[in-house]
Amino acid sequence: MIDRGYYGRFGGAYLPEILVATFDELVDTFENAKSDPAFWKEYTDIMSTYSCRPTPLSFAENLTGHFQGARFFIKREDLNHTGAHKANNVMGQGLLVKRMGKSRVIAETGAGQHGVATATMAAKFGFECTIYMGEVDVERQRPNVFWMERLGAEVIPVREGARILKDAINEAFRDWVTNMDTTHYVLGTVCGPHPFPEMVAYFQSIIGKEARRQILEREARLPTRIYACVGGGSNAMGIFSGFFDDPVELVGVEAAGQGLESGQHAARLSSEDASIGVAQGYKTYFLQDNDGQMKETHSVAAGLDYVGVSPILANLKETGRVRFEAATDREVVDAMSLTMQKEGLIPALESAHAFAQAFKEAPTLSKEEIVLINQSGRGDKDIFTVADAFADPKWQEFIKNKAEAYHA
Amino acid sequence: MLESYLRARLKEKQLLLMTHIVLGYPTFEDSFKIIEAMVEAGVDLMELQIPFSEPIADGSVILHANQKSLAGGATVKKCIDFAEKVARAFDIPFLFMSYYNILFKYGVDRFLSAMTEVGIQGSIVPDLPPEEGQDYLEAMQKYELSPIFIFSPTTPDERMKYLASFGRSFIYCVARKGVTGAKTSFSEQLDRYLARCRKATDLPLALGFGVKDKADIEFLKGKADIAVIGTQTIRLIDKEGAEAVGGFIKSLRQLPGSS
Question: Rounded CA gap, A323 and A317, in Å?
Answer without folding.
Answer: 6
